[in-house]
Design brief:
By secondary structure, the chain is of the alpha/beta class. The protein is 23% helix and 28% strand. β4 and β5 form a beta hairpin.
Length: 410
Amino acid sequence: MNYVLIGNSTAAIGCIEGIRSVDQEGAITVISEEPYEAYGRPLISYLLMGKTDREHMRYREPSFYETMGVEFLLGRRAEKIDSKSKKILLEDQSSLSYDKLLVATGSRPFLPPMKGLEKVEKRFFFMTLDDALALERELNGEKRVLIVGAGLIGMKCAEGIARRVARVDICDLAPRVLPTVLDDEAATLVQQEMEHHGCVFHLGASVERFFDNTAMLTNGEKVPFDLLVIAVGVRPNVELVREAGGSVAKGIVVDETGKTSLEDVYAAGDCVESHDLTNGKDGVIAILPNAYLQGHAAGVSMAGGEERFDETMPMNAGGFFGVHLVTAGSYEGESHITKTENSYRRLVIKDGVLKGFIIVGDIRRSGIYTALIRKRIPLHDIDLERLLESPQLLVYDRKTREELLGGAAI
């Protein structure tokens, strides 16, 4: 069997390990536009902070690809999928045949229309290692940086560079930071910590136009800058599948095994459409755990095994200057909130099950909440009062504890 993977990030690693769990002999070839082995993309901010280095950003050990028998085509771009002849056309007009194909092309930064942007010489994105290295080459203690976008990418960029530049300004049309992840109260805690480290926010305002290294905002403010970072969102890379005639909606349409509408073509990761188990809606859920598990299920299925992944839901975990947060699921339902001056916890319950949560501060037991959501465990099996006040494993009844612990009930 000849397996080909387009892309070399989290979903591809999951696929490789999934294939090898079933087929130890088939040939695996990875085509990657980036010239690097797989690395942890969320770590690029810590690279700029000096909290990690290139070696520790590896997603797997250096021997991983050799051990798994993977052939690399690094720094190469796939231009077209010919699903009828089962070939991939590369940018140099060479081609590669496959028996089973995984498309793990991820996403790309969204570039919104902004007047005068074409005249801004020093502008950057912040999604890849090359993006981070390009920005790093321009950083020094005299530079003023404007980040357009207060979502996860923009905020991690701000954290990564705040101590290395003179000033960081962040603008976003939304009225709060991390608008798709946090509610107002949780966002306030994160924003206050960012401001304590010198970040300046301009919320509820977007860029109207750029002129002479100054951004004119829609609220009338003028923000001067030396470096511009655009972090207003991403778009899934679906073009290869769409142009090959595959089904595409908000992302590449796949079933629970990762199979697309094209014969012997699978897809996984940030380029695919997933079903959110917490609200019943379809969309792109671009987070690492989902990408890996989707890739693994696809790999097992490509190799002739049986594996499905249907537990997709939004999850985010991270921190900003030591303020830790974990979120999961959706927030439509009855909210139960506990908070202190430096912490916040909101659990959202609907139809008798936990649908989502936001935790800022003490996140040590968030995994219990995640398990409740993912397994759709009815709350009549749970001591709700203890769930809200002290989320330890004993909030589960004995039967549920046995299920979660593989039969070793306590």
